[in-house]
Every structure is written in C-alpha cells, then in structure tokens.
Write a structure and sequence with these properties.
Blueprint lengths: L1 H11 L16 H16 L2 E2 L1 H9 L4 E4 L3 H6 E3 L3 E2 L7 H8 L7 E4 L20 H11 L5 E4 L12 E3 L1
Parallel strand pairs: 1-6, 2-4, 2-5, 5-6
Antiparallel strand pairs: 3-7
Helix pairs in contact: 2-6
Length: 165
C-alpha cells in the first residue's frame, strides 16, 4: 500500500520546470512584449509635433537625445542634441547622458522623422524604426518623461536647426 501511495504522489507531483533548449536566461522576449504593450499608450500620448518639439528643446533642462550611430550623428544632427547610440544603452550610459534626474524631459527623434531619406538620415523599415526601440528602452530603464517627434521634416528647413559636419 505504501509503495502504491508513493507512486501516486510522484505521478501527481508537478514536473520540475525545465529550461527550453537554447533559451538564454538573460533574454526575456515575453517580458519585452509586456513592456512594449505597457509603453504603447504612454508613447501615444507623448508624440509631439515639430513646433512643440522646438519649444520644449529650448526649455532649460530638456535633453534632446539622438540614439543614432556616432558616425551618423557626426555627419548631422539637430542642434543641441546629445548622442548616445541605441546599441550602447545601459543603466550607466543613460545615467551619464541624462544625468541624475530621471524626470528630466527627454526629446527623441530618428531617421524616420526626416523626409530627405539621404545620409545621415536614411529611412529605416517603418516596423523597426529606431524611435520605437528608443522609447521602449528609455521607459524600461525608468525614464518616463520622454517625448517623441511625430512629424516628418526636411533637415534643410531652418526651423529644424540641423547641424552638418
């Protein structure tokens, strides 16, 4: 009887959680999906037109963040922008670029905000435009006061305040 009870207990016990082969414990795709879903309405409410972008950029303490590569940034960028390539986002690099105040207003823009579709702002595939990843990552690292340029502008327009190399 004891043997049967032990077999019954073992048969009813939950199977131990096994990692799926090839699963990297340092990558959480489902967590990213949840984060992206959380960010979506927040981002939607913080898409701003170019006039507001310029007004906010002129306010003391606002950071204009350019997450493109160093090379693209050096070839041209919005005046006053600070460059931190997206591929270098870490808690430490963001704190160094943004400063200690996580509530600091941060404005972002990227290649797909420009109609020129020429270097240094060659248009990206719209479903993977860097604006999306940049916004999600900033939010994920705890920066909630982020605004994204929503307009498509010509970098030759003086109102854009484009600085070329």
């Amino acid at each position: 009887m004891r043997r049967f009870a032990l077999l019954l207990i073992l048969a009813c016990a939950p199977a131990p959680a096994l990692a799926q082969p090839g699963t990297n414990p340092q990558i959480d795709y489902r967590g990213f999906q949840r984060l992206a879903a959380t960010v979506q309405p927040h981002r939607q409410a913080r898409l701003i037109d170019h006039a507001r972008f310029n007004r906010m950029a002129a306010a003391p303490g606002t950071l204009v963040l350019d997450a493109r590569s160093r090379e693209a940034f050096a070839a041209g960028h919005i005046e006053g922008a600070v460059n931190l390539p997206f591929t270098e986002f870490t808690a430490e690099s963001l704190a160094a670029a943004v400063g200690p105040n996580r509530d600091r207003p941060i404005l972002i823009y990227c290649n797909n905000n420009f109609s020129n579709n020429a270097p240094p702002v060659t248009r990206k595939l719209i479903t993977v435009a860097l604006n999306i990843q940049t916004f999600i990552n900033l939010y994920g690292y705890g920066y909630r006061n982020v605004y994204e340029l929503n307009d498509v502008v010509d970098f030759n327009d003086p109102a854009v305040r484009w600085v070329s190399a």
